[in-house]
Specification:
191 residues; alpha/beta; Rossmann fold
Amino acid sequence: MLVNSIVTEVNRNTLSDSFAENLVRGKLWLAVNLLKIQDRFDTIYVLGSWYGNMAMILSRLPISYQQIVNVDLDADALRQGQRLNREFGVDHVKSMRANANDLDYRRLGPRGAVINTSVTNMSGAGWFDNIPLGTRVAMLARDNDSGARNQFSSVTQLAQQFPLSDIQYQDQLPDQDPQTDFDHFLVIGRR
C-alpha cells in the first residue's frame, strides 16, 4: 500500500519540505537522464507523486508529453499539487487518488512511461507487476533511511528487486539531508 508520507527521513510530509534540496536533486537527476534516453511521451504516470514536483521538473525540460498522471493516496497533497502546477503553468497534468499497486495503466500509450520516485517507501510490487511489458520505467530509491519500507544498499539491489528487460541507465548519486549522508539509486529501462 502506498503510504501518505512518502518521505520518512528528515523531510516532513509538508509542501515546503517537498522542495528540499535533496528531494529536488534526485528528481532532477532522474528527469535529465530520462531526457537523454527519450524526449517524447504520450502519458507519464508519476507514482507517489506527493505534491506534483516531478511534473513541474519535467515541464521545465525539453521533454514533450500529452499528459502526466500524478498518482498518490494523499488527496490534499494532490489538490495542492494541482494548484501549484496551474500556478506555474504546467499543463496537461491529471491527479489520480489511488493505490499505485492497483493501477491498470489504462492511459498508458506506446510512448508512455512510469516514474516511481517513492520506491523506498512504497509497499508491495503491484505498481511494478502491472506495468505493461515494453514500457519505459524510471525508478528512484535511496539508502540510509531507517524508516523506509524498502531498504536498498545499492543500485544493483534496486535493479534486481524490480528487474527490467532492458536497462538503459543505472547509477548512484551521493547526497545528504540534514541528518545523514546517503546515495540516490536510479534505474531507467524497459519493463
